Each structure stands twice: as structure tokens, then as C-alpha cells.
Amino acid sequence: MKFRSLSLFLVGFFFYYSCEVRFEPNTRILVLGTIVDELNEPIENAEIKVYSTRATSLFSDDDFLLGRNFSKQDGTFEIVSLFDRTDDFSIEIYKDNNFSKYTYLTSTNDNAPANLEINIGTIPLKRIGKVHFNITRESGGGNDIVYSFKFRSIECIEFYTDDELDIDQSFCYEEIFSNGSLNDVNPDTEGSFNTTFGTIVEFTYSLNGQNSITDTFLVDQEDYDFSFTY
Q: What SUPFAM superfamilies does the entry give (predicted)?
């Protein structure tokens, strides 16, 4: 047990120092931008954090926090922070659970930002709607259904290389699927998922192996109820 504890300590020790931040001496960078909603209205008091690396399972977010501030009434913000050479430099923007979260990623390992400034421009945070669904069987035993929901995610992560968006490494409000099936063992179900305002959700189903049918609905409120019977 002592040997195992020592091994775990050494693994954590070497991992920590391999991830140790490498601050540039006497160097600060300016991070700035503007936060708006999907209607282009400014968002006040959104929290912006600058990290030398994203959080890991061993460390909390603030272990690598370089700077922090909040957006003003007009949605603008500025942060003067320490500068670190890293492959996982990030700027994370969060308002509250009613809005999507945005993450800006880049590598500062080989190149410092021009003029020691990162201007991320105007960033829209989209309001989030929670869809509550209920699917029940009224047609009796022996009938089954296969179904899926297609909707947009609430996360936007953008990776930049030399100030150019790298689409292959980015993930921004992508379409995702949630699916399931119901039968005599489990004839009914209910659940929920989050998506962005303005999303047209596609509900596709097939009854007893027949051709698929797709219905759609628009998420335009914080709580949206969807019910379906078969």
C-alpha cells in the first residue's frame, strides 16, 4: 500500500510539473471583445476567464486561471492577464444557465499574439430552451416505436490558428441526435434535452417497422413541452 501511494504521488507530481505554466517575464496580454445575445442585444455581466490550459480531472479550472472580468452594460469587456506559452490557451465566456457557453481556443506555444492583443470580436451567446418530451402508447400491446430527436447543441468551441478559424477542430452549435425505442417491456418514456432558441427540432419515428415519419417544432421558449402518442 505504501508503494502504491508513493507511485500515485509521483505520477501526480510529474504530471503537475509537466503541465506547469510558463509565464513570459514582464509580459501581459490584452483580451477584449463584445458579448451579445441572438438578437444582437448586449449582454451585461457575462463572466470571461482566460486560462493557460483547460481544466483536467486532477485540477480545478482556477488552477490555470490567468485573468478574469465581466462584460459591461454595452457588452464589451477587457482583460489584462498574464501570458503563458501553451498549446491549450483558452478564453471562456459564461453568463448563466439560460445562455449557451462559448470557448475560444488557440496555441500560444510558438507564436505570441500580434501586439500582445487578442480581440475575439462580437460573440453571440444564445438563449437556451429546455424541451420536455413525453411519449406514451395508447394503441395497446404488440405495438412498438423507434424514434429520434435532432436538434442543435448549446456549446460553441472555436479553435484558431494564426487568427484563422480551424473548422476541423471547432464545434459550434452542431446538430446532434438523441434516439430510443419503445415496446411491450417499456411502452412509455419521458425526458428532456437543452437546445438553443430558434432551433427547429426534428422528431422522426417509425411504427412497427414501417416507413419513417418526421415532424418538426420550433423551440421559442425557455420550457417547451412535446407530447406524442402512438
A: Aromatic compound dioxygenase (SSF49482)
